[in-house]
Amino acid sequence: MAWFILLLAGLLEIVWAYSMKLSEGFSRPGPTAVTIVAMIASFGLLSMAMRTLPLGTAYTVWTGIGALGAFVLGIVLLGEQAGAGRIFAAVLIVTGLVVMKLSTPSA
């Protein structure tokens, strides 16, 4: 269950990162509100997952999900460049997340 909660926390990290971009420096109320709510929920779920998962694993996976998701949304929704170096870096993040999951005792 901790891994599922951590996945939800990571997905909410993607939401708040994207909505923060849309808030244009917190100058737009709607995206700003989404950012704040998603941040609080994401941190709350992360703290729940950390009850069982090791700190290093939980935090690494949480930030990895957020980084990878923000990278993909940037390309798909915001038209950011997807150069070979950036894609290679994303593959390395995914590889790191898989290794972290496989090397952590079940929770």
TrEMBL record:
Keywords: Cell membrane, Membrane, Transmembrane, Transmembrane helix, Transport. It comes from the Bacteria. Its main location: membrane. The chain crosses the membrane at residues 33-50, 57-78, 84-102. It holds the Pfam family Multi_Drug_Res. Gene3D superfamilies: 1.10.3730.20. It is a multi-pass membrane protein. It is found in: Cell membrane. InterPro entries: EmrE-like (IPR037185), Small_drug/metabolite_transptr (IPR000390), Small_multidrug_res (IPR045324). Belongs to the drug/metabolite transporter (DMT) superfamily. Small multidrug resistance (SMR) (TC 2.A.7.1) family. Gdx/SugE subfamily. This is Guanidinium exporter.
